[in-house]
Write a structure and sequence with these properties.
The complex is a heterodimer of chains A (327) and B (352). Chain A has 327 residues and is an all-alpha fold. Chain A is built from 15 helices and no strands. Chain B is built from 13 helices and 14 strands. Chain B has 352 residues and is of the alpha/beta class. At the A-B interface, α8 and α14 of A face α3, β7 and α9 of B.
């Protein structure tokens, strides 16, 4: 122990810790990069700290009731976050349910099936979709998607699946389902672009080995997918992060009503939309504080959802890895 | 080597020049004022700033349209020279402000009812009770007997009503809910008046454009927007029954009439709600918008510039109101606003 302290006391040994090669430039670079990484952590901590500090009045007033209450009434100073949490999580889940199969399909087609002269332009278009500002998606949602859903999709869903409470209620084209679909369209380019890169990174030898063992193309693709599973999961988590925090496009089509309804046709509200909508005219310290606490909750929801997703992924990849090895 | 030295010298001289110019600009008596607040009158204020800037090049005024709540907050924190708000400040806000705040009314606006109902050619008519019941969710169908009673001779469809309201907190919502609270005891008790009420029914659209978008694209909807926005976009607007029992089409004159009619019972500090005002041709969902200033200005030069600007605004500035679809102040309110502006002082001496 004392030897270690002695070593550290000596300047040259410091340098050796920082740079095993003994090069001064390396040491400086290492410290610099460490500081940059630390800066990132510091920003996250500072944000959580600021959010927590500013939401103290609301936390003190409502306590855990804030998370359980379904009542949001700024005029009477009553604030509850549950409808917003529900809307945020539900719209993101709908988005992933729709988007993940599509994204996987796009990526598999681009990497495994499409000839070069098709894969290039389609890949480019997919990446272009990711660059469209969200307000443009929102406008398209109001003027094209919502009327389309109202006229064709929602009546059909109500007719065939009306026995499910999910597809009952008034058909306006504006609501949780529309919000989820617009999110799905927004996260698809992100997920498919990353999955495409992941699949392309799976070594060609895997494919050749599978084919050599007599696998069909479909079986070969399954081998590639299992190999890329951790990367695919990462792509889905990336998409989920975007969906949870998306503000503008969602607020334009989700109906903005803090209410929990089983029906996907009914209006809902997300945390990010609520903050964006109400912050500008929020008067009164408690109101502002409640909005900041919503921000804090969004932070926590993102943490928790990401954590759950990672644990799921870890379990799945471990299992499939085991099956693969056993076979 | 010498080339880079030369360019370095050039940069050095240029920066000295810039600094000198900045000093000269300050020395020649340029006053800059900062304002922030309501988004509703922002197009008019921007027009005022550009017109006033042409007349007084040495006064530089900026206005940020950040919302009434933000305007009041920044005024209280003294980060701006003037604030702006659609609704007058509340008593507790006035008390917690670091100095006495004056309300200078600038123009008037109105909230209109718009709808999307196929096969209806003439403007729909609504009595206050019917409007309140629709927005409370108690009237659910377009052919409800109460709506039919207001619209004799109109064939109303058997469709469900979809209410569209603002999702962002807004002065427009505040004026509309203030009106509904005055005409319906049930509304007052259940919902109340404010910038973001807890709407009993309907879907929310962001901003006037969001509400308009939802109403235009969804059949059988009803919503409320600013008069100026409805006129510019040629949307159908409903007639509303006023306190005298007349159905009135919203117009600039009908809004100014609401201010004239309620001038007699407008309090001394000009903080007043003129919704549901009595008078034959009055449009009942009208309201003032205000510029907020401290009565005691810290900086005499800035205070003088501010007072001159406001004076110009309520006189010459009013001529720009109609072209931008705002209702100008009636003459007697201009007189009383003059009194308010004249009472502004700096260190005890009047600025005008």
């Amino acid at each position: 122990m004392s030897a270690v302290t002695e070593n550290f006391a000596h300047p040259s040994s410091w340098r050796r810790v920082l740079s095993p090669t003994g090069n001064t430039g390396d040491a400086v670079f290492r410290v610099l990069m460490f500081l940059v990484a630390l800066f990132m952590v510091a920003i996250v901590v500072a944000m959580v700290w600021a959010l927590a500090a500013d939401s103290m009045p609301s936390i003190r007033q409502f306590g855990f009731g804030f998370l359980k209450s379904q009542h949001w009434d700024p005029i009477h100073g009553e604030f509850g976050a549950l409808p917003f949490i529900y809307g945020t999580v539900a719209s993101s889940l709908i988005a992933l349910l729709i988007s993940v199969p599509f994204s996987l399909g796009i990526a598999i087609f681009l990497v495994e099936q499409a000839p070069h002269y098709i894969a290039r332009p389609i890949g480019f278009l997919v990446e272009l979709l990711a660059a469209i500002p969200s307000v443009v998606y929102g406008l398209w949602g109001i003027f094209v998607l919502a009327p389309f859903l109202r006229q064709y999709v929602e009546p059909a869903l109500a007719k065939w699946f009306g026995w499910l409470p999910l597809f009952r209620g008034s058909i306006t084209g504006i609501g949780l389902l529309t919000g989820g679909i617009i999110l799905a369209i927004m996260v698809t380019p992100i997920i498919s672009a990353v999955v495409r890169d992941v699949l392309a990174a799976v070594p060609g030898s895997q494919r050749e080995a599978a084919l050599a063992l007599g696998a069909t193309k479909w079986e070969m693709i399954r081998v590639v997918l299992v190999n890329g599973a951790p990367g695919i999961a990462g792509a889905v988590i990336l998409g989920l992060g975007r969906a949870l925090g998306e503000t503008m496009a969602v607020t334009m089509v989700i109906g903005n009503r803090p209410e929990i309804s089983l029906s996907l046709f009914e209006p809902s509200y997300t945390i990010a939309s609520a903050i964006a909508n109400e912050f500008t005219e929020a008067t009164g310290d408690l109101y502002l504080s409640a909005l900041v606490e919503l921000g804090l909750i969004l932070f926590l929801v993102t943490f928790v959802v990401n954590g759950i997703a990672r644990i799921l992924v870890w379990n799945v990849t471990r299992k499939t890895g085991g099956v693969g090895r056993a076979a | 080597m010498s080339a880079s030295k030369k360019s370095f010298q050039l940069v050095a001289w240029l920066s000295v020049l810039v600094v000198l110019l900045a000093f000269v600009a300050c020395g020649s008596g340029t006053v800059s004022l900062q304002g922030a607040g309501a988004s509703f009158p922002s197009p008019l204020y921007q027009k005022w700033l550009s017109e006033y800037g042409k007349l007084h090049p040495n006064v530089k005024i900026d206005y940020q349209s950040i919302g009434s709540g933000g305007g009041i907050k920044q005024l209280k924190e003294q980060t701006v020279d003037f604030g702006a708000s659609d609704a007058p400040m509340k008593d507790e806000d006035l008390k917690s402000a670091p100095g006495e705040v004056l309300h200078i009314p600038t123009v008037l606006g109105a909230v209109v009812i718009t709808y999307n109902l196929q096969g209806i050619s003439q403007p729909l008519r609504f009595s206050p009770e019917t409007l309140a019941d629709i927005f409370l969710g108690k009237i659910k169908k377009w052919n409800d007997p109460k709506i039919a009673a207001d619209n004799p001779g109109v064939t109303l469809p058997t469709r469900d009503i979809t209410v569209v309201h603002r999702s962002d907190s807004s002065g427009t919502s505040a004026v509309f809910t203030d009106y509904l609270s005055k005409v319906s005891a049930e509304w007052k008790e259940k919902v109340g008046a404010g910038t973001s009420p807890n709407w009993p029914t309907g879907i929310g659209g962001k901003g006037n454009e969001g509400v308009t978008g939802q109403v235009k694209n969804t059949p059988n909807t009803i919503g409320y927007i600013e008069l100026a926005y409805a006129v510019q976009n040629k949307l159908p607007v409903a007639q509303v029954k006023n306190a005298n029992g007349n159905f009135v089409t919203p117009s600039i004159d009908a809004v100014t009439a609401a201010a004239s009619a309620s001038a007699a019972n407008t309090p001394e500090d000009l903080r007043v709600s003129i919704t549901n005002a009595a008078g034959a041709g009055v449009y009942p969902i009208s309201s003032y918008t205000y510029i907020l200033v401290y009565k005691n200005q810290k900086d005499a030069a800035k205070g003088k510039a501010l007072v001159d600007f406001l004076w110009w605004g309520i006189h010459d500035g009013e001529s720009h109101a109609k072209e931008l679809q705002y209702a100008p102040l009636p003459a007697d309110i201009v007189k009383r606003a003059e009194g308010k502006i004249s009472s502004v002082t700096a260190g005890g001496t009047p600025l005008r």
